[in-house]
């Protein structure tokens, strides 16, 4: 005895597979386009009440560090270092969050390892 699927299920075989492949290709193209756009964006964050400002790109590269002269204290270099680290990390988090949000819109929340 042969098992039957309800009407509307199966039966498409190769056509369904081709449609799925086209959808996956479109998603990949959209992700590539959005990734290129995101890599061109810049993200900035500050620390210490705007004493230190870091700017990074969507490629996760540090582009600029701005330090207000009044926070440069030769006696407390460690504090300045902490402010720089904090502002860079926050800018990188903003870039990563923007990328994750953009990719989720494209993929519909489906986790696709290796695609982004």
From TrEMBL:
Q: Which Pfam families match?
A: YbaB_DNA_bd (PF02575)
* Cytoplasm listed as a keyword: yes
> Where in or outside the cell?
Cytoplasm, Nucleoid
Where in this chain does the entry annotate a coiled-coil region?
Answer: 17-44
What keywords would UniProt list here? Coiled coil, Cytoplasm, DNA-binding
InterPro entries per the record?
YbaB-like_sf, YbaB/EbfC
Q: Which family does it belong to?
A: Belongs to the YbaB/EbfC family.
- Role noted for this protein: Binds to DNA and alters its conformation. May be involved in regulation of gene expression, nucleoid organization and DNA protection.
Instruction: Return the PANTHER family for the record.
Output: NUCLEOID-ASSOCIATED PROTEIN YBAB (PTHR33449)
The subunit field of the Swiss-Prot or TrEMBL record says: Homodimer.
Query: What name appears for this protein in its UniProt entry?
Result: Nucleoid-associated protein OUY18_10940
The organism of origin for this protein: Caproiciproducens galactitolivorans
């Amino acid at each position: 005895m042969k098992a039957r699927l309800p009407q509307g299920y199966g039966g498409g075989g190769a056509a369904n597979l081709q449609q799925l492949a086209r959808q996956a290709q479109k998603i990949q193209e959209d992700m590539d386009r959005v990734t290129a756009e995101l890599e061109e964006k810049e993200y900035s964050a500050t620390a210490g009440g705007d004493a230190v400002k870091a700017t990074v790109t969507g490629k996760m590269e540090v582009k600029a560090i701005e330090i207000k002269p009044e926070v440069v204290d030769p006696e407390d270099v460690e504090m300045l270092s902490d402010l720089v680290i904090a502002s860079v990390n926050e800018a990188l988090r903003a870039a990563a969050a923007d990328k994750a949000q953009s990719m989720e819109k494209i993929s519909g929340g489906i986790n696709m390892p290796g695609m982004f």
